[in-house]
Amino acid sequence: MPKKQNHRMTNQRKIILEELKKVKTHPRADEIYKMVRKRLPHISLATVYRNLEVLSELKEIQKLESFGTLKRFDGTPENHYHIRCIKCDRLDDAPFSLETGLEKKIRPLTSFTVIGHRLEFIGICNECTPSRK
Amino acid sequence: MPKKQNHRMTNQRKIILEELKKVKTHPRADEIYKMVRKRLPHISLATVYRNLEVLSELKEIQKLESFGTLKRFDGTPENHYHIRCIKCDRLDDAPFSLETGLEKKIRPLTSFTVIGHRLEFIGICNECTPSRK
DNA sequence: GTACCTGCAAAGCTTTTGCAACTGG
DNA sequence: CCAGTTGCAAAAGCTTTGCAGGTAC
Q1: With contact defined as beta carbons under 8 Å apart, do B86 and B124 qualify?
Q2: Which chain A residues are closer than 8 Å to B103 by Cβ?
Q3: How confident is the model at residue B85 (pLDDT cuts 50, 70, 90)?
Q4: What phi-psi label fits residue A56: left (phi over 0), alpha (psi between -120 and 50 degrees) or beta?
Q5: Computed over its alpha carbons, how large is the radius of gyration of chain B?
Q6: Across-strand partners of A92?
Q7: According to the model, what pLDDT value does residue B14 have?
Q8: Residues in Cβ contact with A3 at an 8 Å cutoff, skipping those fewer than 6 apart
Q9: Residue B121 to residue A106, Cβ atoms within 8 A
Q10: For the whole prediction, is pTM greater than 0.85?
Q11: Closest-CA residue in chain A for B68?
Q12: What local confidence, expressed as pLDDT, does residue A90 receive?
């Protein structure tokens, strides 16, 4: 069973959360570190990393890493979608044709010049599905 | 203008490409290194990295790094989409409601148990659009 | 009081780079 | 030939971890 942890709302944790909620961009850890250091000049980068981890476990924030931390390489140069197994991190091609309509739909809603999109499905693969073991 | 380069099809490059085309998974650089080393025991990991870079420039393969190399953190815990600027790497929320139908459409087509998806739009932001400078 | 947290420094990993030797076209 | 490439080793990032001291509750 998962280890129980009683998290404390330390000053550092509170300020990291406040600063992250304050911006609408999606900063990297080092950017958050810079933001927070204006209010806590002696905070360490390790504390920022540890708190971002805890806060995303608590579902207060989201950690974004769609394709995982490591780069992956794909022998198929054409654009296509993928499906990832959340258990074993296996990444397959998704048997799904391109949704060309998506870009058209978002164009009137954004100030960006939209030139494409990426779509990834998340799931559990055959081998990781308990009922089929 | 972009520097012109005359790429050579060296044995190492050819074998890396062959091995990558051979698999339907999307291996990481270190996995490709292991695959290639069975045929070229003395190849170096640096060569693998350099060739993956060249091959993706040549559009022979794709480098997958949807959210970029670095992790990013999002103060909004609810699921939502993003839009990335390919020039400055800025990442904003996408003003686009969730496409709940996608998962339903892929379920009959895959052996994975689908539990979600991630969608990212790619574009050029306001500040990077030349015509509005 | 004590489990959790912090800052610092060191370690860990993946990826990139400098360099001298080598090679494909 | 010689620009492009390779292997090796070292460097460069980003992220995690060990540890001793500090703190929230």
Answers
A1: yes
A2: 121
A3: confident
A4: alpha
A5: 19
A6: A83
A7: 96
A8: none
A9: yes
A10: no
A11: A65
A12: 81
Question: A80 vs chain B: nearest CA distance in angstroms?
Answer: 10
Give the H/E segment covering residue A33: helix A29-37
Shortest CA to C1' contact from A47: nucleotide: C6
The pair phi, psi for residue B6, each rounded to 5°, is -95, 100
Whether A64 sits with its Cβ under 7 A from any strand C atom: the answer reads no
Q: How far is the CA of A109 from the C1' of D14 (A)?
A: 35
Q: A91 and B26 in contact (C-beta within 8 Å)?
A: yes
Q: Give the pLDDT confidence score for residue B2 in this predicted structure.
A: 45
Structural domains in chain A, sorted by start: 10-75 (1.10.10.10), 79-133 (3.30.1490.190)
In this predicted structure, what is the pLDDT of residue B24?
82
pLDDT exceeds cutoff 90 at A40: yes
DSSP A38: T
Q: For residues A111 and B128, what is the distance between their CA atoms, to the nearest angstrom?
A: 11
List residues with CB under 7 Å of strand D. A 8-11, 28-30, 45-46, 49-50, 53, 69; B 4-8, 10, 12-13, 40, 42-44, 46-47, 50-51, 54, 70-71
B41 nearest nucleotide via C1' and CA: D7
Shortest CB distance from B95 goes to which of A56, A110, A117? A110
Residue B63 has a CB neighbour count (10 Å cut-off) of: 14
Q: Which amino acid is present at A105? A: K
B38 to chain A, minimum CA–CA distance in Å?
19
Cα(A40)–Cα(A24) distance, rounded to whole angstroms?
Answer: 21
Give residue A70's identity as a one-letter amino acid code: L
